[in-house]
């Protein structure tokens, strides 16, 4: 007797969620189909009723992981865009996220792994990146945009904040020194907050310009 569509969908969601968590903590190569199905509480034979390959599951799990991440929880609970963006930054660059106390974001926890995968996987990652960047941009405080290419324009600021969040968390995961981890996350958070509140101040812009000139 075939399972009802609702039952099949529930099984698929269990597989995807289990895979998303395993991939985020171990990477693609270190996770087997058997491990995914065991974590989902299903038999290996059920896997191919839902997915053609582990690669296909990987693509879907990236999108699913973003839905279960701390960012999505913030979006569910807050309505003010500026407040939402600030809370997203704080949650993303928190010690709790680093310690996997809530669902890890695939962008920070899988960035180097995904770079070596097929276009479908990288397309899924790109969708998640732009989704986060759009959330950030919606909550930026207004600032004078002097030129379209200005570092303080809304798009430039949202991209910079997203890069600080993802890059900061990805690097912190690789460090073995707790003091360095904490200092890095704090520095990324402070800079991201300043960008959210109104962009880089003149002193920071001068420092960036000086660094560019020296290079």
TrEMBL record:
HTH tetR-type domain sequence ranges: 9-69
Positions of the DNA-binding region: 32-51
UniProt GO molecular function: DNA binding
Originating species: Proteobacteria bacterium 228
Pfam families recorded: TetR_N
N-terminal signal peptide: none
Name the record gives this protein: TetR/AcrR family transcriptional regulator
This protein's UniProt keywords: DNA-binding, Transcription, Transcription regulation
Highest taxon, organism lineage: Bacteria
